[in-house]
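Board notes (copied after class):
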Amino acid sequence: LGFLGAPGCGVRSSLDVLNAWVVAGATHSYSLPVPNDPLLANFHVFTMALVLQPGVNQLFGGAITSNGIDGKIGTQ
């Protein structure tokens, strides 16, 4: 995202689903309900976070991105 004013930040997942929260404090957790459907076995879920921190860069007035996570549904 350097070309948008956030050097060193990257997007490591698609923007298919966006969720927004107001966070107070240094940590935040969320859950993602997954239906009990055998067709979802071995399905990959990619996620990452973007936190607005005014003044750190020019993207949205200041944005920090997390590392990307690849979660796999199923036990095999």
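Comment from the instructor: The two ends are 35 Å apart (CA to CA). DSSP finds no helices and four strands in the chain.
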